[in-house]
Write a structure and sequence with these properties.
- The protein is built from 7 helices and 8 strands, in the order βββαββββαβααααα.
- The chain is α+β, with helices and mostly antiparallel strands and 178 residues long.
- The strands form 2 sheets. The chain has a 4-stranded antiparallel sheet with strand order 1-8-4-5, with no helix packed on it. Strands 2-3-7-6 form a 4-stranded antiparallel sheet.
- It is globular.
Amino acid sequence: MSATHSFNSTIQLFEDNLWFYHFLIPPKVASYFLSLPSSRRVLCKINGNTAFNCALMPDGLGEYFINLPQKTRNELDLKKHQELHVTLEADTSEYGMPMPEELREMLHQDPEGNAAFMALTPGKQRNLIYIVNNVKSNAIKMRRAFVIVTHLRIHPKLDFKQLNVELKAANQAAKNIK
């Protein structure tokens, strides 16, 4: 188990269109996590709630922050300027987020798709994992995993535009069956 670091921070809002809600990481805490071999990936616990996977992001001015997507803000009822008690721990998981069982099984059953997945950058792997994990329904997770692995066999370099078209087509086909 890695060391944890706790601190207080405040939710802020960037003035650009790239990042929005976030909180700053104290420099000593950021330095500690950036020095670890596990990269910038951390498990973040806010105000004692369940930990979520995220990354320390550079702000371009020498400091680091954690982005707070709308889904996380809604789940934790977080508002601009709110004070937070944050606990960070290095994320030592294989992919920097939990691998959904549906995707793991599809990759296990398809060696060619698995090889293409393993050849992707860690960020692209996490992106695909997120696509599968981002729904609650096991049936939809399985459908997404199937489409992703099938796509990787044809497009091993990953074509996100084409993948999106294929995911939409699979959703439409599923609707037509019902």
